[in-house]
Design goal:
Elements lengths: L20 H13 L1 H35 L1
């Protein structure tokens, strides 16, 4: 697991190769200059995390229910 598991490039953030300093600088500057982009990323991040936690919660519920049925 890692950033690519929770970041959708261009939707809720940027994925940049760890050794590409120039691209990292470019993306940081872009985010600093673009309020609408930051707002978009923030909105989608909150939505995606909500969905992720919902999926995790459902898995836990199924696991607990299966244990209780034994």
């Amino acid at each position: 697991t890692g950033p690519k598991d929770i970041i959708s490039n261009g939707k809720n953030g940027y994925l940049v190769p760890s050794d590409d300093v120039e691209q990292m600088i470019k993306k940081i500057l872009q985010l600093m200059d673009d309020v609408e982009l930051r707002t978009k990323f923030s909105y989608h991040s909150q939505d995606d995390i909500g969905n992720l936690y919902s999926q995790i919660g459902e898995k836990w519920e199924r696991l607990i229910a299966s244990i209780l049925q034994q």
